[in-house]
Amino acid sequence: MAAKNYRKVRVFVASPGDVADERARLGYVIAELNRWWGDIYRTTFELLEWRTHVAPAMGRAQQIILDQIPVETWDVFIGILWLRYGTPTGGIDPATGKPFDSGTREEFAAAHNLWQQTGRPRMMIYRSLRPPETMERVRPDDWQRIAEFFDNFDASGQHPGFYVSYQTPDQFERLVREHLSSYLFEISGKAVRRRGRIPQPKPAPEVSHGASPAEIVSQPAETDPTEKRRPLDILTKKRDGFALTRGEIDSFIQAFVQGEVPDYQAAAWAMAVYLRGMNEAETTALTLAMAHSGQVLDLSNVAPRVLDKHSTGGVGDKTTLVVGPLIAALDLPFGKMSGRGLGFSGGTLDKLEAIPGFRSDLSTDEFIAQLKRIGIVVSGQTHALAPADGKLYALRDVTGTVSSLPLIASSIMSKKIAAGAHIIVLDVKVGRGAFMKNEADATALAELMVKIGAGVGRKVGAVLSDMNQPLGRAVGNALEVVEAIETLKGRGPADFVEHCLAVAEQLLLVSGVAKDETEARAKLQGALSGGRALEKFGDWIEAQGGTRRVVDDYSVVPQAKIVQEIAAPRDGYIAGIDAQEVGLTVVDLGGGRFRKGDVIDHAVGVVFQYKVGDRVTVGEPLFTIYADDRMRFEVAKARLLAAYTFADSEPVALPLIHKIIK
Length: 662
Prior knowledge:
Blueprint: E1 7-14, H1 20-41, E2 43-48, H2 50-53, H3 61-68, E3 76-81, H4 103-118, E4 122-128, H5 140-156, E5 161-166, H6 169-195, H7 213-218, H8 231-239, H9 246-257, H10 263-276, H11 280-291, E6 307-311, H12 320-329, E7 334-338, H13 348-352, H14 364-374, E8 376-380, H15 387-399, H16 405-419, E9 423-430, H17 439-455, E10 459-466, E11 474-475, H18 477-488, H19 494-511, H20 517-529, H21 532-543, E12 562-567, E13 572-577, H22 579-591, E14 605-608, E15 615-616, E16 621-627, H23 630-642, E17 644-647, E18 657-661
Parallel strand pairs: 1-2, 1-3, 3-4, 4-5, 6-9, 7-8, 9-10
Antiparallel strand pairs: 10-18, 11-14, 12-16, 13-15, 13-17, 14-16
Helix pairs in contact: 1-6, 8-10, 9-11, 10-15, 11-16, 11-17, 12-19, 12-21, 16-17, 19-20, 22-23
């Protein structure tokens, strides 16, 4: 189709000169989106910059830019700030009657004024929080003006968009790709609906096609030859709102893994799922197709029931290090394929690898042998398990489709099915420091995964747990290992102890080992207080090459060079601790990663002396920072203090467990 028939979305970018990397990446993202989605949605992005759209002219520089790139032509406004705020432009802000203090601020005001009159442009504001290479780069006046700008942005609640912080140019690239993709899908969906071209979805046939759950799990779908349609046909069928059959889904996934479906078609299919959704039958079929795209472990020769748990990620979430030994201490095999942390959500393997010698790269044979021998094993997922999920997630991560509910549920459950556990409890976090920010979304995800499990013959339950503040007191790999061991010794933080017992309790109930909560809790308390769980922890660590000395000698884990208590800035009650900001701060200290290849500093982190609801006195220790770099320490100190909210009266207590789903 001729380019003249394409809708053009004009993107104006405003920023000082210290974010040149981000501007370059924005140009790359726009070119990529045009290449991937232009033909499908008949829409292209055009990046508007003074470097390419403004000719030299006489007069005030900012006015020349606004004259030659009129604000009325902007569909999207992107602002980027880091250390520089800019210089006064000579223009007068009509809202205040005062001169604008920077060109970026004048451009923002122009966009905001247009939005008030017309409802556009869409505004996306990004703030870099990465530390400067040297403190000489920081101008206190600029830093203060940037902080005031974002404080006012938050406080007014009247702006036509959002602002988000990021740590690295790589993270900025991922965020802006996701946000522009979402905007494209939003406007394209509206246009298609207006044209009346979306047919009503047809109900998909039953996933099992009459087979029993055991038969479904034991083998992939038998694809009907009539359903071996071209990948493009399957893509367009979902794009137009129709439900896919199990055979079509299996055919598409198999072709994708075998390299017969190019990345751009798989990404377009994921986008169609993101926009049109999937019913329960389709999601179950997708889960099975991805699970059977590689090896599926059969653990029935180990035990009639092997238990596992999965967390959707959180800040300070070291639950597996306690729940696993608790379950194994009751002579119930606990086998888990785990992952590494990415972003502010820590990974179980990263914590375990803080223990000298610990091996997480077990082969399948080693995994099964250890499970038989000592009843507990936690290892990294092998590439042979659910390879379709790995390939598809890599595309979802760069095309803004990560947040699709059926894609999330099938990703998690395909790996759990492939790993072979019979009993699974899902720890679905909800809140500021979680992927699912509200209870409704977390409930929908948990219920969908429980239904998928039931549909394929697995016993699955879910716990919705709070992540509006860090879990426990320690955040950081080695620090969390120590806190987990202390918990197994009966000295853990009350919230973390209760959380671990609640998750383990559901494992006993779902597996039928306990008839009710009272019996389950009594069994677990006995394993904890009697020392059996601690002993099992030592057996487990030793079996995977780690030093058993860690149980009694915490000095064997990495130690930070800088350990310093930070005092409370005022009297009062702690009304909030922003879990996401805490997680991002620990990543910035070196304790996490934004890319899979980033190196982890296991020693760094933070330990909190008080939690939400506690009363503090000015000057007493509030938290302790563990750092290996003085500049990073100073930045972390400021960020963590800013993550606190204080109140004069006692706040409403945060729930620990929101609900149980069976």
